[in-house]
């Protein structure tokens, strides 16, 4: 079972999600939060697998709540579910540690697929917001287009595996290296490409045909 916590300040939204997700045999709703402060508290006590996190909420917003939850070192994944597709919301959410970013107009089947994907450790972005990330990655003109030329052959291989949504353990198995070595390569890749996290690295790889 995938244990899910819903965090949204709108009662109607929470009810709708609860009603729909309860029909899924492999998903269990373990709690509901009406603001970011409650989301942090419930995440700590309930330890869900996935948190559906709204962004604009009272007391503590979804970005700060996500950051605080990630800082606690919990194993849960945060899937942002919002109405905002702009870069000003998207990039901070990803940097805060969100594993996925979906819009509230997402098709029900795609939402379920996204919950499963982030639970597996994969990155998920709504198609409407992908272009915003691409724009951010290429900010500054042509400089970013050649950054991956600084990567070693092995680092390019690891980056290609990241683009497929694989975890460090899966990459290690695929390339016949240790997880510790993979972790080192990932750190080097993010530093050389001047990226904040694996989601941005995956999008960079896709954009440049790596993998």
UniProtKB/TrEMBL annotation:
It holds the Pfam family Response_reg. Residues 3-119 form the Response regulatory domain. It is found in: Cytoplasm. SUPFAM superfamilies: C-terminal effector domain of the bipartite response regulators, CheY-like. InterPro entries: CheY-like_superfamily, NreC/VraR/RcsB-like_REC, Sig_transdc_resp-reg_C-effctor, Sig_transdc_resp-reg_receiver, Tscrpt_reg_LuxR_C, WalR-like. Residues 144-209 form the HTH luxR-type domain. GO terms for molecular function: DNA binding. Keywords: DNA-binding, Phosphoprotein, Transcription, Transcription regulation. The modification 4-aspartylphosphate is found at residue 54. This is DNA-binding NarL/FixJ family response regulator.
């Amino acid at each position: 079972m995938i244990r899910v916590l819903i965090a949204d300040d709108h009662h109607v939204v929470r009810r709708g999600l609860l009603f729909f997700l309860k029909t899924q045999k492999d998903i269990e709703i373990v709690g509901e939060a009406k603001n970011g402060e409650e989301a942090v508290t419930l995440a700590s006590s309930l330890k869900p697998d996935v948190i559906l996190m709204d962004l604009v909420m009272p007391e503590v917003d979804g970005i700060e709540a996500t950051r605080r939850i990630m800082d606690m070192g919990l194993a849960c994944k945060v899937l942002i579910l919002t109405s905002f597709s702009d870069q000003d919301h998207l990039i901070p959410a990803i940097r805060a540690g969100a594993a996925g970013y979906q819009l509230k107009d997402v098709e029900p089947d795609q939402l379920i697929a996204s919950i499963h994907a982030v639970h597996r450790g994969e990155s998920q972005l709504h198609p409407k917001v992908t272009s915003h990330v691409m724009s951010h990655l290429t900010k500054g003109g042509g400089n970013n287009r050649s950054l991956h030329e600084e990567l070693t052959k092995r680092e390019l291989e690891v980056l290609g595996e990241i683009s497929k949504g694989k975890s460090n353990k899966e990459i290690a198995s695929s390339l016949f290296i240790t997880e510790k070595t993979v972790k080192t390569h990932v750190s080097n890749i993010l530093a050389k490409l001047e990226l904040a996290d694996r989601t941005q690295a995956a999008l960079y790889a896709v954009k440049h045909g790596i993998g």
